[in-house]
């Protein structure tokens, strides 16, 4: 039995070592001279007016948004996400990026109180990326949680929903 464990451990170690060398990982397309690593800014996502922080790494752009919804009682909300470069269209690293996001999608009235609805989705963005700034226009599709009131009536179904966003950030 000890020989079998040794064999399994050896096979597992060889596979892990091979995985590090394989081309499974995406190719790094962004370099340090393309843009600043950390960027801060503001934007609007649907009805969420927010401040955002962006981290540019060799594989893409990670971001976090925090703000408040413009409708109702200005319920707080936020999102996190990541965008991977897909196709560059010119100088600087301008082009199309694909990504995924999760967080608050919208604000709805449930039992006479505003409630921020959680959800997740994917998006396609056009990013204007330079050393000084990041400007992003994106359209996404996602789905949010099902919202019901105390009586069990459905306020919002879990169904696909478009999300439009614009952000402008400057490097630190």
UniProtKB/TrEMBL annotation:
Signal peptide: 1-19
Tree of life domain: Bacteria
Record carries keyword Signal: yes
Keywords carried by this UniProt record: Signal
Name under which the protein is recorded: Outer membrane protein beta-barrel domain-containing protein
Organism: Acinetobacter indicus CIP 110367
Native organism taxonomy: Bacteria, Pseudomonadati, Pseudomonadota, Gammaproteobacteria, Moraxellales
